[in-house]
Design a protein that fits this description.
It contains 18 helices and ten strands. The chain is of the alpha/beta class. It folds into two domains: 217 residues, Glucose-6-phosphate isomerase like protein, domain 1 (Rossmann fold), CATH 3.40.50; 171 residues, Glucose-6-phosphate isomerase like protein, domain 1 (Rossmann fold, 3-Layer(aba) Sandwich), CATH 3.40.50. The strands form two sheets. The chain has a five-stranded mixed β-sheet with strand order 1-10-9-7-8, sandwiched between helices. A five-stranded parallel β-sheet has the order 3-2-4-5-6, sandwiched between helices. Helix 2 packs across helix 16. The protein is globular and about 65 Å long. The protein starts with a strand and ends with a helix.
């Protein structure tokens, strides 16, 4: 069942009113490149039919591994960076109680390796010192600097706390099938492993064991998540008028009209990390060859008291994609107060979400009136199947949009440049020439 809807009526107005049909052939060409593998980056299209091709046996195995970790551990640390953590973080945060840290009976999923913060890692070590914990380490090579540092530090601590044999039973590696430092270590130590497929890039990996295992450890229904994605896959790949296609076309029409910044807006705080995942997905996929829409995100109504001023009255180089959630899990009404010192009795008895929806509506109207095109993406709820649909919707639209933009949506040459410079500065063996060159620049 379709659980998200896309409305572009407040985006393609005026001179852009006919853009959806004018650019549809380009969009369909981009979609065809995803399905027939004729575009750049075709070696990384394993995600396109991944939801429908994910076996029940794999999902059962992931659930069994998650159950085993929960039985042994109060805390499981998922170690990874970029796509190896953002997708799982987004889903877990969206589905979790906002104050889950205060639920001691539930296995917590924490994250490490997504930064090189010394205080962060030291504080995590302190927190884990009296905890029964386990590790999910996610890295294709096992040598990416940030997760490799975190894993070395936390593996040592786990082995010291429970012994090397028991530590091996509490570590799961998601890595390459045959090669790499982490594969070698996992085979030597006897870790449970899952494979990162060669044809699925990190930012498209949330529906693989990379994302599914941490999500399952957190106690959420990965079968429903994948089923939702499979529904969106079918709707996207079989139609010439899908929401993903129309979103991709609309973004490119706005970009060609001078709208260089897209702001993903949510009015539900549980979706904050969906915005963080989305920023990586689109930024890393489209920002190439001096092209690309800059992806930003705001949390409203919070950011209406800061970024709201710029969005309303700043340079007209932006458009917004608003995530709107129809229903909440809980119901909370605003009480009446006899003194009414805060002047809120006029909304006494209303649900908090009703007030939030009115804030959302009036904000969208004000921004459209102020010259900010708006795309509205409405979610029925924040459940596993809905999030699965949303994930696939954004992934498919990203691939189509990248091809319309004229770039390879599946590589990341700029990221590799920063890594090379960092290795050179740290004097990593094999980078001597680059180290000398950088030193010469710094003189």
């Amino acid at each position: 069942m379709k659980k998200i809807q896309v409305d572009i009526k407040d985006a393609l107005t005026g001179s852009l009113a006919g853009s959806l049909e004018t650019l549809r052939p380009e969009g369909l060409s981009g979609l065809a490149k995803l399905t027939d593998g004729s575009g750049e980056g075709a070696d990384f299209l394993g995600w396109v039919k991944l939801p429908s091709e994910t076996s029940a046996d794999l999902l059962d195995d992931i659930n069994a591994t998650a159950a085993a970790l929960r039985e042994k551990c109060d805390v499981v640390v998922a170690i990874g960076i970029g796509g190896s953590y953002l997708g799982a973080k987004a889903v877990i945060e969206a589905l979790s109680n906002s104050f889950a840290a205060y639920e001691p009976a539930k296995t917590r999923v924490l994250f490490a390796g997504q930064n090189i913060g010394e205080d962060y890692l030291a504080e995590l070590k302190d927190y884990l010192a009296d905890k029964q914990f386990g590790i999910i380490v996610i890295s294709k090579s096992g040598t990416t600097t940030e997760p490799a540092i975190a894993f070395r530090v936390l593996r040592e601590q786990l082995e010291q706390q429970v012994g090397r044999k028991e530590a091996a039973a509490r570590i799961v590696a998601v890595t390459d099938a045959k090669r790499g430092a982490l594969r070698t270590l996992a085979d030597t130590e006897g870790y449970k492993t899952y494979v990162i497929a060669d044809n699925v890039g990190g930012r498209f990996s949330v529906l693989t064991p990379v994302g599914l295992l941490p999500i399952a450890v957190a106690g959420f229904d990965i079968k429903a998540l994948v089923a939702g994605a499979a529904e969106m896959e079918a709707a996207t790949l079989t139609g010439a008028d899908s929401d993903a296609l129309n979103y991709a076309i609309t973004r490119n029409a706005l970009y060609r009209d001078g709208k260089k910044i897209e702001i993903l807006v949510n009015f539900n705080p549980k979706l904050h990390f969906v915005g963080e995942w989305w920023k990586q997905l689109y930024g890393e996929s489209e920002g190439k060859d001096h092209k690309g829409i800059f992806p930003a995100a705001v949390d409203d109504t919070t950011d209406l008291h800061s970024m709201g001023q710029w969005i309303q009255d700043g340079e007209r180089s932006i458009f917004e994609t608003v995530l709107s959630v129809k229903t909440t899990d809980r119901e909370l009404r605003i009480p009446r107060d006899e003194s009414d010192l805060d002047g809120l009795n006029y909304i006494a008895g209303k649900r908090v979400d009703e007030v939030n929806k009115m804030a959302e509506l009036r904000t969208r109207i004000a921004h459209v009136d102020g010259g900010v095109p708006n795309i509205l993406v409405t979610l029925d709820d924040v459940k596993e199947d809905t999030l699965g649909q949303l994930i696939y919707f954004f992934e498919a639209a990203c691939g189509i949009s990248g091809y319309m933009l004229g770039v390879n949506p599946f590589n990341q040459p700029g990221v590799e440049a920063y890594k090379k410079n960092m290795f050179a500065l740290l004097e990593k063996p094999g980078y001597e020439e680059a180290t000398a060159a950088i030193r010469a620049k710094l003189k």
